[in-house]
Amino acid sequence: MATASPDLSALVADPYSTYARLREAGPVHRVTGPDGLPVWIVTRYADVRQLLADPRLSLDKAHRLPGNYPGFTLPPALDLNLLNMDPPDHTRIRHLVTKAFTPGRVEEMRPGIQALADQLLDGVAGRGRADLVAEFAAPLPITVICDLLGVPHDSRLDFRAWTDALVAPDPSNPGAAKKAVAAMLTYFPQLIADKRRVPGDDLLTDLIDVRDDGDKLTEDELTSLAFLILVAGYENTVQLIGTAVLALLDHPVQLAALRDNPAKIDDAVEEFARYDGPALLAIRRFPTEDVEVCGVTIPAGETVMLSLASANRDPDRFPGPDRLDLARREGGHLALGHGIHYCVGAPLARLETQIAVSSLLRRFPALELDVPRDQLRWRPSMRARGLIALPVRF
């Protein structure tokens, strides 16, 4: 089924209405992407979930036919990561990563994350107002991920700027993304060399040392993994914290219910992720053979985008999908993926969001927006869903 391209400004300002129209019109649409190249968009929950785990849809760009959207392109030293590979390489590297990135390590981080959240809130408490993105939601995960990787303190502001430039490029500064890539290509190999010389109690040192029957990560694999962990670990969490807080401010009854019963925060975070998750679309995929979806044939080598945002608002899976419901019984959202490419950092993103939202509600019982709702600005991206700023008073 071919359709007119969804307008980028509409996808930024109101993606859920736009995807609802696509979903109602049909399960699969061939559209023109922002770069002028064709893309297939899949919109319904059952199809998106199935295709996320379908081995015929490859993440390896070697399967892309020329003339189709390639996705984000990076130099090999940054591109050789889990978002661009299939088994057996994906299986090998993910297994090595998960040996170091365990739930136990994440849980050990809880006291430190809580102390950091409290410290950040201490810094704004006396003013009675703050931008929760710049002063809370962003510094929390960038500090956590840099602590996890063992990044020195004097590099951390650079990391945040590099990540922002890559994920949501500023149209007025077109060279920022290239500069960020060049900076990372210089920085990460040096950081890895430093860790080899002076090992630390951090994930990057673990990744350097991890072995499995003699197998270990190559230099490019190490560099790419450090890059991926930084970008994904920071970007997804900062956006999820911001949209979670906004969702509560938009739904005061739900906010009051969570404040009265803070033990429900784990379930609440799952609903925040379903309701307004950080990724509108999963990473692009390329069929290794023709794939049929609801009677529509997607040819091998063309680009497929699976809409996580649309799937998570599909009324066939989630009754009343446009309503935030912290007591929702239907689980199984796809905000963090599904199948072998499920987000390896999901436990950390959940923990940080749980701590951030709980701490904020406990500290500031009179929290409210400090600007009219329609003045909030969103990042100019059809892939990453996030607020530029979230001004509040308390």
TrEMBL record:
CDD domains: CYP107-like (cd11029). This is Cytochrome P450. It comes from the Bacteria. PANTHER family: CYTOCHROME P450 YJIB-RELATED (PTHR46696:SF1), P450, PUTATIVE (EUROFUNG)-RELATED (PTHR46696). Pfam families: p450 (PF00067). Belongs to the cytochrome P450 family.
